[in-house]
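Render NADP-dependent oxidoreductase domain-containing protein in 3D.
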Amino acid sequence: MTSAQKSELNVVFGAMTFGKKGAEQSRVYTLEDCSAILDIFQEHGHAEIDTARLYGEGSSETMLGELAWQKRGL
């Protein structure tokens, strides 16, 4: 999926809430929910994600990898 149109406002999505259930800061636990959130983010013309190894005790980056974030154009 590619961004529909680049937004004039540079918004960076913080992926710290993606991660396994029970991990500190994690609020979004399923791949389906994460994918839906990324779809909406991209539909608004955004394509940059902030992530770190510590988000979701490492599970945030794992989830993004399972969602093929690079193929999505993020």
